[in-house]
Design the sequence.
């Protein structure tokens, strides 16, 4: 048997619950795999074979002791703006579609999703399935291949997750269950109330009321936690808490920001703020331009807002400026688009890296990488070997500029402007230490390197098991 974890809304904690369940099953040596038929996120991950999936499913696989696989997230939607998304199908770009046209693909995509689920079942026997958004979007039932139509096909027991932190938890749970189709409502076997703050005993009466209203057991009341696991999508940006340290780093909050999980380790060692284009950058010790789903359009926002001018001023006063993937492309002198990313044309970049990025075809580079630093300058000289992954369209050429890593990226002669296509650079502790220790030296501060946390998946599993009647979930895997 397997289970589905559905939610009363987006961002209620479905991904976290699935991750915890995967680690607890892994501890018990129960063969299983995580699965999400359709995910919409700009935080993605590259599998060993070069396929692209949502980062949440990759982290769930790691929690389950597995190598991430494209079958775990067969459909990934990557919003590009203007109601358009790129469909990544079985790890590879499929096509760009308008929201109004996407639903014409529903039946075909559901077939692909079911095939992927069957591949995983044959290999691992059990699935822990994550739904998407809210389960009771009644206007979407006929085309909801992440929740209702998938549940109708698979008919697995359902655990419903609700978020008490946002308020209205009784309406969330009762309303969702009441609106589910009859054949799906009968599959709901338990409710988990997530993100509770305060004394759990104060909600005992609430649990009694919910169970009486819904005739479904509440399996747990899970307190909010700051255990660090990668964020699934941009909704998580609003929840970020800035660590107070003397070192302040600005990550430009691009309209189409992608893979901001690149900086979550850095957030534990410096005050990292996500700064919208046009907001003041004058007080920051370093500037990072992250990845984006649409380099050209986000570059135009940076230019129009004055952020490009501010970045050049920061560079002139000696602040390191680092571009990751799309941010690297923006740092170049020129971007030439043949109509792949945006309208065909030539666009002026920020100009801190003398070079040109060209978008010629729809092909996408997706690969895991391990690279040695070139050692140029005071930051890269503190880094030896790092690992990460590339997800990008376009190629960048700068023949007269030194490479940041062997055969990749770019670095200025003084080492303070760095561009790379490597996502995950700052998930390497050595890269975090290199940047933060350099910035501390510039301010005359002794960096007290904090201890790294233990395995966050074990910590999450311990937290979950403490507050949830896991035996009630476990019985569905017998």
Sequence:
């Amino acid at each position: 048997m397997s289970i589905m974890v559905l939610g009363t809304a987006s961002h209620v904690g479905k991904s976290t619950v699935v991750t915890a369940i995967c680690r607890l099953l892994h501890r018990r040596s129960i063969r299983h795999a995580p699965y999400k038929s359709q995910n919409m996120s700009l935080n993605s991950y590259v599998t060993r074979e070069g396929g692209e999936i949502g980062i949440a499913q990759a982290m769930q696989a790691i929690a389950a002791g597995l190598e991430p696989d494209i079958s775990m997230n067969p459909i990934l939607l990557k919003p590009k703006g203007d109601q358009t998304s790129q469909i990544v199908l079985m790890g590879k770009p499929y096509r760009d579609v308008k929201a109004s046209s996407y639903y014409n693909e529903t039946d075909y995509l559901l077939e692909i999703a079911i095939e992927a689920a069957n591949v995983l079942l044959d290999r691992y026997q059990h699935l822990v399935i994550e739904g998407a958004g809210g389960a009771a979007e009644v206007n979407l039932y006929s085309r909801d291949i992440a929740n209702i139509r998938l549940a109708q096909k698979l008919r697995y027991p359902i655990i419903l997750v609700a978020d008490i932190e946002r308020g209205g938890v009784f309406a969330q749970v009762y309303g969702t269950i009441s609106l589910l189709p009859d054949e799906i409502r009968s599959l709901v076997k338990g409710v988990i109330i997530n993100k509770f703050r305060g004394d759990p005993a104060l909600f005992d009466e609430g649990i009694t009321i919910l169970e009486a209203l819904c005739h479904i057991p509440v399996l747990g009341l899970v307190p909010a936690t700051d255990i660090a696991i990668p964020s699934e999508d941009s909704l998580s940006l609003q929840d970020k808490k800035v660590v107070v340290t003397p070192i302040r780093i600005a990550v430009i909050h691009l309209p189409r920001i992608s893979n901001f999980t690149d900086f979550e380790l850095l957030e534990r060692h410096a005050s990292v703020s996500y700064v919208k284009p046009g907001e003041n950058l004058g007080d920051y010790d370093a500037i990072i331009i992250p990845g984006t789903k649409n380099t050209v359009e986000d570059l135009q926002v940076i230019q129009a807002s004055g952020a490009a001018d501010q970045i050049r001023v920061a560079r002139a006063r000696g602040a390191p400026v680092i571009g990751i993937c799309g941010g690297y492309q923006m740092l170049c002198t020129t971007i030439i688009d043949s109509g792949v990313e945006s309208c065909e044309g030539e666009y002026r970049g920020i100009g801190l890296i003398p070079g040109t990025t060209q978008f010629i075809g729809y092909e996408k580079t997706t690969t895991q990488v391990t690279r040695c630093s070139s050692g140029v300058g005071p930051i890269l000289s503190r880094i030896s070997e790092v690992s990460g992954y590339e997800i990008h369209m376009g190629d960048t050429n700068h023949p007269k500029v030194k490479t940041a890593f062997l055969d990749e990226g770019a670095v200025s002669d003084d080492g303070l402007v760095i561009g790379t296509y490597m996502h995950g650079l700052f998930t390497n502790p050595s890269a975090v230490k290199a940047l933060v220790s350099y910035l501390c030296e510039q301010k005359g501060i002794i960096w007290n390197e904090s201890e790294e946390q233990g395995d966050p998946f074990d910590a999450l599993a311990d937290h979950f098991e403490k507050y949830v009647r896991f035996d009630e979930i476990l019985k569905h895997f017998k």
In short: The mean pLDDT is 92.
